[in-house]
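[retry 2/3] T9SS type A sorting domain-containing protein: previous attempt timed out, resubmitting with same input.
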Amino acid sequence: MLYPNPVRESDKLLLNNTLTGKVQIAIFDATGKVQMTANYDKRTSDFQQQLDVSKLPQGVYYMQIMVDGKSASAVKKFIKF
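[retry 2/3] T9SS type A sorting domain-containing protein: success.
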């Protein structure tokens, strides 16, 4: 889950699944260009992380979330305003 959406400065990412390990987050713009990446450690089934997107310009973005190289969820769409 990703909220709030639309977002102004930061989003909260919630993952609840059995995957643990290195979390890799990539944020793409509408053209498919990577605008931001982040890495975290997920040690339990519940994972929460605040993501600072304040430096991204306004627009539509897509977030891909991987845990140890495996897709952890569907690509998430969000709007930055």
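[retry 2/3] T9SS type A sorting domain-containing protein: Residues 2-80 form a domain with the Immunoglobulin-like fold (CATH 2.60.40.4070).
[retry 2/3] clearing retry counter.
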